[in-house]
Amino acid sequence: MHGVRRTSTVLVVIPAWNEELALPAVLAEVAAALPEVDVLVVNDGSTDRTSAVAREAGVVVIDLPINLGVGGAMRAGFRYARTRGHQVVVQLDGDGQHDPLSVRDLLAELAATGSDVVIGARFAGAGSYEARGPRRAAMKVLSVVLSRLVGTRLTDTTSGFKASGPKAVALFARDYPAEYLGDTVESLVIAARAGLVVSQHPVAMRPRSAGTPSHSPVKATIFLFRAFAALAVAVTRPRSTVPAIDGDDLS
User: One matching Pfam family, short form (predicted)?
Assistant: First the structure.
């Protein structure tokens, strides 16, 4: 990783835990759809060949010694972006559910609206992704509560498909929670309480291309109810201020 120079102000960060089967196709898609951006895979303590297949694809890899979860992996990604001068970070899952072609839509929304964080929203009119039962109910309640906190209507506050602009990169490089749901619920609260603008853009979500989901439906439901605990923690955190950022133009 040392000595790698920035070639783009946009960095796609892919947190990956045991994604050796899905990751090669994801990286090939990113290379085809976004040849001008830099790509970082954060190997989140995988026990398979995730790190090896990423290196074989020619991208930069950070190897975390233990599994920290998505929040910990993204925190490493934001810190890497900050030190290398990347002004925009796009979070993309390593399991193939996020279409790299949609990254351009998120970047366009970021530039057109002046937002600091743009969420790729599954329930905003694009695609046919569905969530049912208690899981969907919990997601709706979370969206209502977080919409009030950030001051705009959000329909998918647990989406991991996001683009973060310069202010958000500077903030998240310093204050990004590694705890459970830190990458979704808590990070949105931190951004809003720091005065950043959060918006969303509709995206279609695809089925996982390979590998095994980390959550069963029952675990997913429990996971989302735990989100309310994360939300309670988030709103009690001291407000953050955005660190100073440099003046590079976006490209």
Answer: Glycos_transf_2
Which contacts (CB < 8 Å, 24+ apart) does range 220-225 have? Answer: 220/135, 221/133, 221/134, 221/135, 221/138, 223/180, 223/181, 224/134, 224/135, 224/138, 224/139, 224/142, 224/158, 225/134, 225/138
Q: Can you tell me the distance from the alpha carbon of 117 to that of 164, in angstroms, rounded to the nearest whole number?
A: 5
Q: Work out the burial of residue 222: count CB atoms within 10 Å of its CB; fewer than 13 is exposed, 13-18 middle, 19 or more buried.
A: middle
Please report the pLDDT score of residue 204 as a whole number.
86
Q: Does residue 41 sit in helix, strand or coil?
A: strand
Tokens 């835990």 found at: 17
Name the phi and psi angles at 91, rounded to 5: -90, 125
Cα–Cα distance, 150 to 14 (Å, whole number)? 26
Residues 6+ apart with CB under 8 A from 149: 188, 189, 192, 193, 235
Q: What are the average pLDDT values for consecutive 10-residue runs of the chain, which has 251 residues? A: 69 97 96 96 97 97 95 96 96 93 96 96 69 69 86 89 96 86 84 94 76 57 69 75 66 39
Residue 231: Cβ-neighbour burial (10 angstroms; 0-12, 13-18, 19+): buried
Q: What is the DSSP letter of 134?
A: H
What pTM does this model have?
A: 0.84
- Sheet-wide strand order for 10-16: 60-64, 38-44, 10-16, 88-91, 162-164, 117-121, 198-202
pLDDT of amino acid 250: 43
Helix (H, G, I), strand (E, B) or coil at 48: coil
